[in-house]
Specification:
The protein is of the alpha+beta class. Helices cover 18% and strands 31% of the residues. The protein has a single domain (36-169), classed as Immunoglobulins (Immunoglobulin-like), CATH 2.60.40.10.
Length: 171
């Protein structure tokens, strides 16, 4: 533990997190994955980081600022992330994600289900009503119980998409 404290002081907290994350990934998922239940070390870091720069052109009606974002694997939804996802999150910040649908919501609520990548539990379930505007948006707060890569499935009406989000350790 003294070596870890020294590493954090010597190279900075950000670099230390990258090193620790790499070591966790190198250890594999031997213990927790066998039971398919979650633990803080089970999820790791997502392969695809949040994108930066402008949101897709089809998201323009939402009038969202250019924020880090995750595009759904099917290209049906984009999640604009207002603060770096952390677990636990600073209560004054919250993990606000503005989900923007490429297709009309038609009044359907957004069902959000998050699980640690590659695991079945724990589950985080959130339901967001289709009552915000402008555009086809669902503002949400998506908090998870521990840091790592979380697979987030999104469903609204007949539409479905998914993103993977990395939650860093809380401050």
């Amino acid at each position: 533990m003294k070596q870890l404290r020294f590493a954090v002081r010597a190279v900075g907290a950000g670099t230390a997190l990258i090193v620790i994350g790499g070591l966790m990934g190198a250890c594999g998922m031997a213990g927790p994955a066998a039971s398919r239940s979650g633990s803080p070390s089970a999820a790791g870091t997502c392969l695809t980081p949040l994108a930066t720069g402008p949101l897709p052109d089809w998201a323009a009606p939402a009038k969202a600022p250019d924020l880090p974002h995750a595009l759904g694997s099917k290209g049906m939804i984009v999640g604009a992330v207002f603060v770096t996802p952390r677990s636990p999150q600073d209560p004054s910040a919250g993990t606000k994600i503005l989900w923007i649908s490429r297709v009309p919501r038609d009044g359907a609520p957004l069902r959000i289900t998050a699980t640690p990548l590659g695991l079945e539990a724990p589950l985080v379930r959130i339901m967001q009503p289709a009552n915000s505007g402008p555009g086809e948006i669902y503002p949400s707060i998506v908090e998870v119980p521990f840091a790592g890569c979380w697979h987030v499935e999104l469903a609204w009406g007949p539409n479905m998409d998914a993103v993977d989000l990395t939650y860093l350790p809380g401050r």
